[in-house]
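S2.1 Query sequence (Sodium:proton antiporter)
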Amino acid sequence: MIFSNAVVLSVIILATLCVLKVPVFFALMISAISAGLIAGLGITDTMTYLIGGMGDNAETALSYILLGSLAYCMEETGAAAIMAKKISHLVKDNKFLLCVIIVIISVIAETIIPIHIAFIPILIPPLISIMNKMKMNRKMLAVSFGFGLKAPYIMLPIGYGAIFHGLIVDSFKSSGLEITGSDVIRTNWIAAAIMLGGLICGLILFSRDREYEIKKVDKNENISEKLERRHIFVLLSGVITVVVQVLTNSLPLGALVGLIFIVVTRVIKWDDMQKMLDGGIAMMGFIAFVMLIAAGYANVVIKSGAVNELVEVAKSLLGGSKLIASYVMILLGLLITLGIGTSFGTVPIISAIYVPIAMSLGYSTMATILLVTVAAACGDAGSPASDTTLGPTSGLSVDGQHDHIKDTCIPQFSFFGIPLIIIGGFLTTIL
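Output structure tokens follow.
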């Protein structure tokens, strides 16, 4: 039975614990251990796989800590506050314009300057006061972040998109289907277009006024808007980070060089380096550790054989119908992604299974690519363990008035996950 499967039960446990407001860190650990025990691994092997699998996200976690330190420097020097003030002057009382600006910044953070979610906890707090005055429902920004952080890497082979597209090409090749990067590009704009429709609907629905208690959260609200030498250097460090990353293909190395530049130029004094690192850990450490646990969870469910069991059950439900097959495989991908919290980690898992099935059922190359993309992405925007949800919450909840599940996860899943499942699933049968 599908409901006795370790993956299914552990995802249900994860969702239940998150709804009960158990911290995501503990909820993930409990769910991972539950998956191992349900699959019959035993507590010793489960913990071994859990801890051993954390290394799969080690580079990502290190990147977050170092980028968090870089973001802390931007916050301490007031560079982020200056940017936020300029955005405030530009926006005035226009909620939709603020959302458009956030989408643009998010797209840039995924492509041209690949700092991913590191900018959120430094840019959003200075904007909270103006958002409160506008009576802006923060769910508008939650869905704006959801689109800006996901659609670029799904559609464009730049920055994080280069990694995602490369994963699809490589995993398809390993599964017996040769495709090129151009195949992914000419297919995945469809998924991005579905998400754009979801974004527009979400912004319209959440545009009604919502009252928030006025709290002071911006310690730099009285800072001058004049750019100083330290502001220029700290912004230049971001450029250096990107250049080094592009040249070496290593985001942690790029962030490290950027931090060294900040210290050498005395933006941060020698004696304050520990404070800089502590600030980075405080800002991004939680998300980094959640990503480590998510990788451990993924390793547990893979080693347990629960994913393969789930696939066998899914195969028995297909019945030779493309429509049924598409929705069964997408929902299976949803379950996996909701648990491990990353579409990047889901692609290699499901490609090995879906590509042979799709080929046997006569799916076109485009349909197969879209199937894998949708199955991997539909649960990312909405998973409690995803950086696409954790990042926005880290900024929007700074005054304690934004709930991770109700205000970030559910809105993102409602306007991105569900449309991807319904529309994407249908389109895979006609491409």
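DSSP finds 20 helices and no strands in the chain. The two ends are 32 Å apart (CA to CA).
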